[in-house]
Automatic annotation (TrEMBL):
Keywords: Signal. It comes from Salinimonas profundi. InterPro entries: Beta-barrel_OMP, OMP/PagP_B-barrel. Pfam families: OMP_b-brl. The lineage of its organism: Bacteria, Pseudomonadati, Pseudomonadota, Gammaproteobacteria, Alteromonadales. This is Porin family protein.
Length: 186
């Protein structure tokens, strides 16, 4: 009885480890740096993100990104003779995406992605009129890009995304992102 149990455990362990290795072949991790532009007063932000993905078919991947703003937008306004500093920055950003890729050559692929993103922005001011606050923007993001396979395990990406529109008191403001990234494929 013990011999059969031991054999069953060894067999199960081998089966699990081989499926884990096959699953690991479909995993990729990496990072992006993006320049995000909000179409109001020339607001540009840099965001550094980590990327983790799983390729679940020949052309399809599921990925998650977690980013942190590394720059801000600020201006100094003069209001009734008093200098007022306004500063805006991306605190954090997360997105979940489905990505479809199609090979153009052996090393170059085009891809499109669609997903859902959430971003928290912080606004600070030394003004008596404008309080310091933070707010989240949530919604659908979509885009397209190129991926170039540099080696068996490393690729570089260039992509353009449309982010969810920012809702403001008098309408909506467009927001887009241009990113350069590197990924390691297991």
């Amino acid at each position: 009885m013990q011999r059969n149990t031991f054999a069953a455990l060894v067999f199960a362990g081998c089966a699990f480890s081989s499926s884990a290795v096959a699953a690991a072949d479909n995993i990729y991790v990496g990072g992006n740096i993006s320049r995000q532009t909000i179409d109001a007063d020339g607001r540009d932000f840099n965001v550094v993100s980590i990327v983790g993905g799983y390729k679940f078919g020949e052309y399809w991947s599921f990925e998650t990104r977690l980013g942190k703003g590394v720059s801000d937008y600020s201006r100094d306004d003069l209001f009734e003779g008093i200098s007022q500093l306004y500063k805006e920055e991306i605190d954090w950003q997360i997105s979940t995406n489905i990505r479809g890729a199609y090979p153009v050559t052996e090393n170059l692929s085009v891809f499109a992605l669609v997903g859902y993103s959430q971003t928290q922005r912080e606004i600070t001011s030394n003004s008596d009129v404008l309080d310091n606050y933070s707010f989240e923007t949530k919604g659908i993001n979509y885009g397209a890009g190129l991926q170039y396979q540099l080696s068996e395990h490393i690729s570089a990406t260039l992509e353009y995304q449309i982010m969810p529109e920012l809702e403001v008191y008098n309408g909506e403001i467009d927001w887009d992102s241009l990113a350069l990234g590197v990924q390691y494929h297991f």
